[in-house]
Amino acid sequence: MSDQEKIHQLCKELIPLMEDVDLQTKEILINHIQDCRTCQQYYNKMNKFSESFSTEHASEEVEIPPLKKLVQFNTGLKTLLIGVRVVILFYLILSSQNFADEISINLTTIHHVEAGIFLFYFPAAIFLTIFTFTFFNKKWSLISVGADVLVIILTPIFLSWLFN
C-alpha cells in the first residue's frame, strides 16, 4: 500500500471526526479532500447528514399526542369513580325508605340516609379520593374531595327540604 493510499484510508476514517481533530490534522484532511474526488463526495455526504441533525431542527418542539388507549383508560376510570359514588348514594336512598307505610320519604328515612352516608359513603369516598390522588392529577383530587364534602353535608339537607 502506497503512502497516498494510506492517507486516503485514514482520511475516510477521520472525515466524520473532522471537528474534533487537531488543526494540523484538519489541514491535511482538507488538502486531501480537495485533491481526492471520492473523499470529496464522502465529505459532502457527511455534511448533509450532519446538517439534517442540526440544532435548528432539534429545537423545534413537536407536540406529542397522548396515547389513545391511555386517554380512554383514564376516562373510563373517572367515569367508574363517579359511577361508584352515584350507585352508593342511590342504594342508600332506596334502601332507607320505609316501604311499610308509604313510598314517600319521611324524617326517619332521612336519618337512615344520613347514617348510611357516614357508614358506607364516607369510607368509600376516602378510598376513592386516595385512588384519585394516586392515579390522577391534583385538580381531580380537589374536585373529588369537594364533591364528597358537598354530598356528605348537603344530601340530608336536600332530602329534608325536598320532601318536607
Automatic annotation (TrEMBL):
The chain crosses the membrane at residues 75-94, 115-136, 142-163. The keyword Transmembrane helix applies. Keywords: Membrane, Transmembrane, Transmembrane helix. This is Zinc-finger domain-containing protein. It comes from Rossellomorea vietnamensis.
